[in-house]
Design goal:
By secondary structure, this protein is of the alpha/beta class. It is built from six helices and 19 strands. The strands form five sheets. An eight-stranded mixed beta barrel has the order 1-2-4-5-6-7-8-9, surrounded by four helices. It is elongated and about 65 Å long.
């Protein structure tokens, strides 16, 4: 059976709600990996940091950068790698998303080439991949054998699967845009679904990955100290945002993971928000939903 995964970005999340993507729901549906949009052009995806950290203990991560034509491709590769280089534990290939964006230049392939060459300079010997569809690759890519050094993450939702040259087979296959997101841990109704071209055991061997249940070793980095004494509360939702004020309209400054226990300094706004520190608040109870409980 093919290993299963999903891919996510800021579009799978509602910033106006307390919760985030829940990797445990994806695991329960059989997913073993998650594609995470890391960056686009010269900026990080708005949900990259929280998605990167919250998925780390539970799913293999397949990071991808959305390539654009308006920023130096070498600079784009540098931005992409700068977000990844401190945490490469349990990673699948570093992928470049090569697809439609605004007016595609005549020599789009040259932009991709410059990006991949710079990424090789920065990140070798880590494996790398290109995400594309045959309908985009054929008119904008190349059949040169050079590209076979990169794994193919093929977008093909219509079938039968048609692999563009020079590849003979795909490594990852995005087969649908229409998984029901809430069942898989997303807030969006639609969610992309992916396969690896082989079993989970084969994927682990091919990319020299730790066993899936050992991804939390070493533990995921966190900015939260271990709670000691006082009022302690546990997150009971699918992850939880920390905001700079006790309001869903306030800016997000950090996040908590499901089942994480924190020390609460005060309970404010008619006992519906937990104050965790200076300009750090998490929702306890909002709009009829509980997000934290006392432990």
């Amino acid at each position: 059976m093919n290993a299963k995964g999903v891919d996510i970005s800021v579009w799978q999340d509602k910033n106006s709600t307390p919760q985030m993507f829940n990797p445990l729901k994806a695991r329960a549906k059989g997913a073993s990996f998650v594609g995470i949009k890391t960056s686009q052009a010269n900026w990080a995806d708005p949900d990259y940091s929280q998605n990167w950290a919250i998925c780390r203990p539970f799913l293999y991560r397949l990071p991808f950068h959305f390539l654009t034509w308006d920023v130096s491709p070498r600079r784009q590769a540098e931005v992409f790698w700068s977000l990844l280089e401190r945490d490469t534990f349990g990673l699948l290939p570093l992928a470049c998303d090569f697809e439609w964006w605004k007016t595609v230049p005549t020599r789009a392939m040259d932009v991709l080439y410059s990006f991949m060459e710079r990424l090789k300079d920065l990140a070798s010997p880590l494996p790398m991949a290109i995400y594309s569809a045959k309908s985009f690759w054929d008119p904008n890519g190349s059949h040169a054998d050079y590209w076979k050094q990169f794994h193919l993450w093929l977008c093909d939702i219509t079938g039968p699967v048609d692999v563009p040259k020079p590849w003979d087979k795909w490594t990852f296959h995005q087969y649908t845009f229409k998984l029901y997101g809430p069942d898989w841990g997303a807030e969006s109704l639609d969610l992309d679904g992916d396969y690896y071209n082989g079993t989970l055991a084969e994927m682990i061997t091919r990319f020299n990955l730790p066993e899936l249940d050992r991804l939390s070793i070493p533990p995921a980095p966190t900015t939260q100290p271990e709670p000691v004494g006082g009022l302690r509360m546990k997150v009971i939702s699918d992850g939880l945002r920390i905001r700079e004020a006790p309001s869903l309209k306030a800016d997000v400054v950090d996040y908590l993971t499901q089942a994480q226990v924190v020390q609460v300094k005060d309970v404010v706004v008619t006992e519906t928000w937990a104050k965790l520190g200076e300009r750090r608040y998490a929702a306890i109870y909002v709009d009829g939903e509980h997000y934290m409980e006392t432990v």
